[in-house]
Amino acid sequence: MEATIDRDTQRKWDAASRTLDFFSYAEDRRLGPHKRRLFEKIKGATLLVAAGTGNDFKFLPPNKKIVSIDISPKMLERAAKKAATYSGTVELHEMDVCDLRFPDAVFDTVLTVCTFCSVPKPIAGLRELHRVLKPDGQLLMFEHVRSGIGPLGVLMDLMTPITVRFGPALNRDTVGNVQKAGFRLHRVENIHLDVVKAIEARKDSYV
Amino acid sequence: MRLIVWPGMDLVIAMLLGLAAGMVIHFVLSLALAPLLGIFETMIPGSLVGMYGGMLFGMRDSMAAGSRTLSAAVLVGAIFGAIVVAGVKVYGRVLRGAALDAGR
Q1: Given B31, B39, B95, which is nearest A193 (Cβ)?
Q2: Is the ipTM of this complex over 0.85?
């Protein structure tokens, strides 16, 4: 059966592809070292979910063979140019994380960067990642989540109905969603307040 | 703020108007500054200053307790903003690091 694509989400990120590099310029410089530190942990066959415009390829360890997906063809057009300058290989595919065209248990590592703030059905997407990971495989995530700091969390709830029209949701409980999807948390690190987090989780070997 | 909130206005309406105005201003400023400073660096303190600050300043103006001149109002706003930014920075340092580490 042919895989399905969420067309509304695709259109939104096609539109965002024009300005993403501009708006993320300073963030890349600020958060880049943290991303590089997390990406050093990738091993074996690796799936990078949501390539975006390929901004994060420069933080990957050198000479790796990466498979990467994105829902937006416009993002992938830009990512292809950056993939060409990476020392390893980045194989790009247009795909929805909620309906991956990969067999079960093929990847040793799945990497996501600011992805699950934007997936409309995050638990369904995470369950797909759980399916394609090998037993004992690792999920590495660099994500922003809803703050547990009372006044800030409320603001994020108030702003989310606006931000989802052109970008991400600000109030996702991604750490909780990772557990709901069947992963075992290994490490959670606060990078910026309790909003930007590096999350490491495992797929248990007996699943 | 005094364009939309005037002395004697109902306190709740003044707070809601202040919140709405703060939200709009914070969104515009955050988007303008994000490429230079980073989206999280601007959005988080910006939302706290804009929305909670907007509510406080709306309430203050409805009680006719606001600053008498524009420069005094700017000074009060700058002090409020600096305190919020400093608070976010300090709390960020407190929170930084492993929140969970199963390997330890």
Answers
A1: B95
A2: no
